[in-house]
């Protein structure tokens, strides 16, 4: 299904995973009212790790990564990000959010601001970066996602793929240590998926810690060092991509893989 | 015909006929008339009926306007002149009342030798709102905007210059305290700043004004609120109400969406209560009940009281309009702001409100226009509004007894001009923001 998007083989030799723990989730549970969305999640993410989370819709994979920066609140268990535990303490939440970038399915750019303003807003207001420096950083990342010429346009004037690349650049401007991707290519036309995935691969090559909810299995094979399969709010199976795709253990995983890779 | 066919076809025209204008029936006014007014028998009948209706309307009123008299000293004289010129049965407008009393429609009973003060205040109003409303006004002018309310109050009511100066000082003092305490958290800073400001107003400002005035007595001649009337009163209430109700409405709208139960409950009760009660009831509260509740001896100006009530009334409506704008924003905007680490106030100020207010512009301006017209209701608490208060006063003069239409037409026309200007500005603003965002 997704292989065609990834043309080059990714050199993984320098993509080192350190021993340092970036995210520690212990025995975490979450309910929406009566509905038990996440059950007993245990997950440790090392710094520099690139994790792809896959699974059928409604399996709780988006909810899981949204818990990591407190867009969703968990009711039980423990989440520690970058050494800070997520509690109701707003200061801790803001601290974590500054270090964790997030890219959304629907981009969520700010339509009333130009691209450049979208990129400089958080650095200026949250990190208190001087304006000139924030602009320099923004232009640097816009060049990196290959659309510096769009800096003065408004988001509505860009294509979906361009908007998503801007969204990635916007997160990077905060110099995050961890990046979360919530189905970043699901809302894109097929011909735009590649440009976004290329940007993400580049990011992976630089050693960014990444958690990525996606259906792009080609991307998973190319850059992930761990694939997590979720179903019904549980982590069913996790493995390195080679073994995950060639030698799935549980029936649920096999069924899922046959469905998405089958045709 | 194309070149290839030229070989096989016997005759090919090699010169083109000059273009001719379309037949008269296919262009311009005639075509427009035919397409829009006479395109079928039904439309033709409706058009003719419409023309007849317009004829009836105009034929009834044009004489009244045409026979209008400007030069007369009483309504009796007007009628004599009209009867002499247009026959005994002719009707005509007696505009002479406007010519003689226009200053009362505009300024009420403000002392004529001091008219320059409200005029200056009105002119400076545009300097104050210019940088907020129009992009071509240099942003440097904006320093004047926060000073303007105090300057305008001083110009309109007069009194010691130290009054507005020391009141302004009170707000500045609150701001300075807020800044000084800001690093201990925004709630703490806000509370301390507010307490210091309130204490200053309760205990310090009165003696300080007396003290400074005794040392350096500079001031303008005082004008009592009872001298205000006509459009001076309506515009003072309208501008004050608009300027205060927008921020109050924003706070109420945010309060209604707050997670904090106390704030949410207060906002809901306030909005529902104010919207559920007629404005006139609130005005009576302003004029009568507040006197019972306030400590004896406090002289709380009637115009200020009415302005506060009108503000509360408009704020409740504006809050609901803005709530609609907030609800129209996709959840993703809130989430993106959160994910970038913006705190609540920054997210509201930089991301949410600019978009929600843009969506709410038509509703907000409607509320402003409604509120401005509603200022005429102050006639019920004994103030001289331009629509009833002033004309009643004028009709009490024997010379103008029985003159009704002319004041209504005149006052209505001015209201229309002012409100139409507001409406056009709101459309201009919408277009500008539309162009910017797209």
UniProtKB/TrEMBL annotation, chain A:
Per UniProt, which keywords does this protein have? ATP-binding, Nucleotide-binding, Transport
Molecular function via GO: ABC-type amino acid transporter activity; ATP binding; ATP hydrolysis activity
Q: Which InterPro entries match?
A: AAA+_ATPase (IPR003593), ABC_ATPase_HisP-typ (IPR030679), ABC_transporter-like_ATP-bd (IPR003439), ABC_transporter-like_CS (IPR017871), MetN_ABC_transporter-like (IPR050086), P-loop_NTPase (IPR027417)
Q: Which residues form the ABC transporter domain?
A: 23-257
Recorded family membership? Belongs to the ABC transporter superfamily.
UniProt-recorded name of the protein? ABC transporter ATP-binding protein
Organism field? Thioclava dalianensis
UniProtKB/TrEMBL annotation, chain B:
Has UniProt tagged this entry with the keyword Cell cycle? no
- Membrane topology label: Multi-pass membrane protein
Any idea where the ABC transmembrane type-1 domain is? 231-426
* Record's keyword terms, sorted: Cell membrane, Membrane, Transmembrane, Transmembrane helix, Transport
Matching SUPFAM superfamilies: MetI-like
One Gene Ontology cellular component term attached to this UniProt record is: ATP-binding cassette (ABC) transporter complex
GO MF annotations, alphabetized: transmembrane transporter activity
GO terms, biological process: amino acid transport
The listed locations are: Cell inner membrane; Cell membrane
User: Which positions, given as ranges, span the membrane?
Assistant: 41-65, 114-134, 141-157, 163-182, 189-216, 228-254, 266-290, 302-322, 359-383, 403-422
Q: Does the keyword Hydrolase apply?
A: no
Question: Which NCBIfam families has this protein been placed in?
Answer: HEQRo_perm_3TM
Which family does this protein fall into? Answer: Belongs to the binding-protein-dependent transport system permease family. HisMQ subfamily.
Q: What is this protein called?
A: Amino acid ABC transporter permease
């Amino acid at each position: 299904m997704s292989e065609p998007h990834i043309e080059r083989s990714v050199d993984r030799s320098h993509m080192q995973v350190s021993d340092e723990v970036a995210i520690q989730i212990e025995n975490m549970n979450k309910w929406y009212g009566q509905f038990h969305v996440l059950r007993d999640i245990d997950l440790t993410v090392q710094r520099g790790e690139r994790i792809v989370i896959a699974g059928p819709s409604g399996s709780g994979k988006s909810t899981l990564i949204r818990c990591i920066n407190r867009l969703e609140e968990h009711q039980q268990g423990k989440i520690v990000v970058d050494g800070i535990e997520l509690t109701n303490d707003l200061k801790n939440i803001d601290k974590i959010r500054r270090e964790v970038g997030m890219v959304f399915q629907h981009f969520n750019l700010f339509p009333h601001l130009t691209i450049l303003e979208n990129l400089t807003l958080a650095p200026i207001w949250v990190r208190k970066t001087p304006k000139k420096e924030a602009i320099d950083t923004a232009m640097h990342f816009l060049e990196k996602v290959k659309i510096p010429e769009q800096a003065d346009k408004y988001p509505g004037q860009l294509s979906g793929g361009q908007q998503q690349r801007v969204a990635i650049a916007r997160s990077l401007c905060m110099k995050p240590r961890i990046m979360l991707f919530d189905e970043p290519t699901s809302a894109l036309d097929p011909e735009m998926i590649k440009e976004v995935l290329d940007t993400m691969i580049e990011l992976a090559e630089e050693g960014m810690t990444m958690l990525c909810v996606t259906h792009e299995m080609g991307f998973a094979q190319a850059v992930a060092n761990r694939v997590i399969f979720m179903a019904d709010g549980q982590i069913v199976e996790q493995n390195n991509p080679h073994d995950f795709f060639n030698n799935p253990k549980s029936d649920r995983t096999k069924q899922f893989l046959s469905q998405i890779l089958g045709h | 015909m194309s070149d290839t066919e030229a070989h096989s076809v016997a005759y090919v025209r090699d010169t083109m006929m000059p273009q001719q204008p379309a037949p008269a029936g296919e262009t311009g006014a005639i075509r427009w008339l035919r397409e829009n007014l006479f395109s079928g028998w039904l439309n033709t009948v409706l058009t003719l009926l419409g023309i007849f209706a317009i004829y009836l309307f105009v034929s009834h009123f044009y004489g009244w306007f045409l026979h209008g008299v400007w030069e007369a000293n009483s309504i009796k004289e007007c009628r004599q002149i009209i009867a002499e010129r247009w026959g005994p049965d002719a009707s005509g407008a007696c505009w002479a009342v406007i010519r003689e009393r226009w200053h009362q429609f505009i300024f009420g009973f403000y002392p004529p030798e001091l008219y320059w003060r409200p005029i200056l205040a009105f002119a400076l109003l545009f300097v104050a709102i210019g940088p907020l409303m129009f992009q071509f006004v240099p942003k440097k002018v904006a320093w004047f905007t926060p000073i303007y309310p105090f300057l305008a109050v001083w110009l309109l009511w007069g009194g010691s210059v130290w009054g507005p100066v020391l009141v302004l000082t009170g707000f500045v003092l609150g701001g300075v305290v807020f800044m000084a305490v800001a690093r201990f958290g925004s709630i703490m800073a806000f509370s301390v700043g507010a307490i210091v400001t309130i204490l200053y107003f309760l205990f310090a400002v009165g003696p300080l004004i007396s003290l400074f005035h005794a040392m350096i007595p500079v001031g303008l001649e005082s004008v009592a609120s009872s001298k205000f009337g006509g459009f001076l009163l309506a515009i003072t209430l309208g501008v004050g109400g608009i300027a205060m109700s927008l921020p109050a409405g924003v706070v109420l709208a945010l309060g209604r969406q707050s997670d904090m139960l106390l704030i949410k409950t207060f906002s809901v009760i306030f909005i529902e209560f104010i919207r559920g009660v007629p404005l006139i009831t609130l005005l009576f509260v302003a004029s009568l009940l507040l006197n019972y509740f306030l400590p004896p001896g406090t002289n709380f100006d009637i115009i200020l009281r009415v302005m506060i009530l009108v503000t509360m009334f408009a704020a409740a409506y504006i809050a609901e309009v803005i709530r609609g704008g907030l609800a129209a924003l996709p959840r993703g905007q809130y989430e993106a702001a959160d994910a970038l680490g913006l705190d609540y106030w920054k997210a509201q100020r930089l991301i949410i409100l600019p978009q929600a207010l843009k969506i709410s512009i038509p509703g907000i301006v409607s509320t402003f226009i409604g509120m401005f017209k509603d200022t005429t209701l102050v006639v019920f608490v004994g103030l001289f509004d331009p629509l009833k208060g002033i004309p009643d006063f004028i009709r009490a003069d024997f010379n103008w007894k029985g003159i009704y239409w002319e004041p209504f037409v005149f006052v209505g026309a001015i209201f229309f001009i002012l409100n139409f200007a507001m409406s056009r500005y709101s459309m201009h603003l919408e277009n500008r923001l539309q162009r910017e965002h797209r």
